[in-house]
Amino acid sequence: MRPPQGKSCNMYFIAADVAEKHEFEAAFRCSVKMIDYRSFTMQLEKNNSTGSIMMELSAEGHVSVMLTTQSKQLEFFSSLARRGVLRKVQQLYVKLDVTNENTTSQQYMAYLQQLRDIHSSGFRIYHFKRIYQHAYKSNRWRTGGYVLFFIRDKSNVSPAPILPPITYLRNVTAVQGAALYHDYMLQSQILCNALVRVGQIGNGGWEICNDTDVRPASECLVYSFGMNGNWAFEIDMIRKFGCTVHSFDQNVKLPSYKNTSLIRRHFIGLWHEDTFLYKNGGEKFRMETLKLLRTRMGHDKIPIDIIKIDIGAAEWHILPNIIETGALLGVRQLLIEVHVAIQGADIHFREKLVILRELYDMGFRLFWSHPSDEPGKTFRCSVNQKHTTCCYELHFINKKYVS
To answer: What is the pTM of this model?
Structure first.
């Protein structure tokens, strides 16, 4: 949900960085009011009161968003919720890094109670982001840091916008294409109630929808293209769901794990031609289309629970063939990382948008999207001068399996 533009758009921002305030003002054309983090925390510690902040919020007619980029602000929002101050706020954005390997059960209970206070005030989490920098040293599958996005449950939420028809997309300008592309990537088109993280926090992990209609079946089948030496996803699909995983990669070492017998390795790459010999130094690797791979392995007429594609920008070359040949027939979930050029204007936005629209027309709906914020993967787009990312991990559900 986007804050309304104009005089009615008021945002409260808890931060020490004024530059971020200016970014929000420019992006949403809202009146952004800063809450000084240091002075507020001193006041809070001094008399356990929110003082003038409470009075000002209570007097507001409408607050579109209240957000913070500071950590450990859950207690602050919980305090406001208990006092009824948030009843005029439509959205909350909360960053927290509150747990680690030494967090006690009493501390967990306190955090859960604070979340309950926010929930009781009418807010529901509609999106979240795991902060990979706060992953536990003893367990890379768990993190103590999250960014939580709340929306008031009675707000009027519009359906996610659909991309324009293909005839229109083929003629968009670079500026129009950049705006459509990056806006579309952050949409949720279908609700998944039960998300399961498969693989570690950060690079190598993906979200799986575990809802009844689309969850991996009892004898689940997974195709995974592109490991880059990271087997976290493949091993976790076995550990969590007992799937048979067909991996397609170059000759990289398989880590020791008791159930790696369920990984069927194929030293074949994914391509848009039926047979192609890829040369990497002195080694040669066979490349095939998804359609041919499924046919050769006897999977062309049986469902595939999950296909994961992470092949470093080559996805835009192979997706047209996958769509044209109907190779995604019977695929319940599609996970794919997509890329745009960091340097210079990406003149191929229109081709990418056409492919995304074709996936939509085939029945694939975004249920989760993760923009990469890793160092070196964010940049200021030369087309529209907006700070953005080069890479998105897109998670699709085939709506044909949703009753």
So the answer is: 0.84
